[in-house]
């Protein structure tokens, strides 16, 4: 009885998580004439997948997204790891206030900042350029990076840093040679979260880019629809295509991801 | 190897409390000095101040005569062994031993040679390719020791290095550490709260109390000529018996208390001083017998063959020459 309940709960949870994605896959496989049906497609076709790339620079768009997300992730990890190390191990005055301020900065709703940011990006000459996305993305992802990584560095035994210092390391060398390798699970977890955030971001991407060859995936997909047609199959196919890299990334780092998410929960 | 001198060293925390206050201490080149005291007496802070992990509020730290008070830890040439071992988990034993040499850019051939020499000295040659997580507590302790030895620093600092080992291993490592100091030489500054380690290992013992130096001397001096009640009670197991003189049948004196080591208190069949046996603790070769004398309990260290039952009457004898007198108010030793 208990197992049956568990099974039901798990099925419900799984359906909730995977259901929409599966529906998306089904939609992408339906021929045009079956779009409005609820039943399984009778004549599944991959045509929509081919059409995604026809007549538009979707490969380029994917490359853009990949570049923006990767650069944002690298930038966040580089700055975030150094800052988190300092906050966790060095005598930084007012560290609590700093962390709180960082958290506060990330609380602004994007819609409230998009206007001023647009002016800023234009003034910097970064409009319609990928760098014009990397900068704001990094700004918004940094607080999260900082919090997660600070927690990670704090949870490393303080004696390790002290030992490294006595063994001849400068603070930076102790960070680089000892603390950073040990914080790898945290870096992977945070990196993935930042990557996914940047990959999926829509509002800034829509506002700060204008030419088709500088668009990112979410914007491009949103613009599939035209005045006269909603190409559902193509939209679904594109969604599946752009979700796959995230799934692959997550699966590849799964082991580290889990240890990163749970590290610090119990002393071990 | 070098001498270490602490001149009027103080460390005050932001809260206002002094961890170390006006510490004056000279550790000779090649000496094995134990810093002992109860938890929170400031002994670990002294080690951190010598290493440069903390900055003193005032005073001077000299290593080999040179003032190093304002120098970074890496410029002080001291090595430290931590209670937690603090081995680098991502490096194997070889990597851990080589770490300080790599940081110092020692050239490869010499680095290899020194790592292997050190490993051989500590009997851990077979473990060089293992990660710390694959080692037992005793093995980790050896690697931690090796990481300090491989550097041949001016001074070695030990922060309760044996506390995490089980009793048997602790005694064994204690012996090895003493042997190591004899064969290798080197200035050893060793923090412990374990009086047995302090007594067996060191040339001299510095006893600390509430951030200040209570007494400095050989273990024998601290045991036999304690300057205060605090020092007298810190050393010796079981602890020194302390009571008003009248309890032992001496002339009453409210301004003084007397101390008597348990090994100097004898139990006999008859005598003027009679008490009731409260507790018998057989220890093998000896037995600790607690006797109630009115409201006071005194411990006698007897032969293991003693056959006393709880509740029995026992007479106590002692040689007045073994009595130690302390001022009741200040705790200072008298005459």
Tell me, what's the shape of chain B?
globular
User: Largest interface, with Cβ-Cβ < 8 Å?
Assistant: A-B, 17 and 21 residues
Count all strands of chain A and give the number: 0
- Superfamily at the CATH H level of the largest domain in chain A? MetI-like
Count of helices of chain B?
Answer: 8
Note the beta-strand portion of chain B.
25-35%
CATH class value of the largest domain in chain A = Mainly Alpha
Largest sheet of chain A: none
Question: What's the main sheet of chain B like?
Answer: 6 strands, mixed
Uncertain segments of chain A: 264-268
Order of helical and strand elements of chain A = HHHHHHHHHHHHH
User: Helix fraction of chain B?
Assistant: 25-40%
Structural class of chain A: mainly alpha
Shape-level CATH architecture of the largest domain in chain A: Orthogonal Bundle
Description of the structure:
The complex is a heterodimer of chains A (268) and B (335). Chain A is mainly α. Chain A is 73% helix and 0% strand. Chain B has 335 residues and is of the alpha+beta class. In chain B, α2 (93-103) crosses α3 (108-122) and α2 packs parallel to α4. The longest helix of chain B is centred in the middle third of the chain and has 18 residues, at 167-184. The two termini of chain B are 39 Å apart. The mean pLDDT of chain B is 93. Chain A binds chain B through residues 157, 159-160, 162-170, 173, 177-178, 181-182, and chain B through 51-53, 72-74, 78-80, 82, 84, 86, 88-90, 99-100, 103-104, 147, 151.
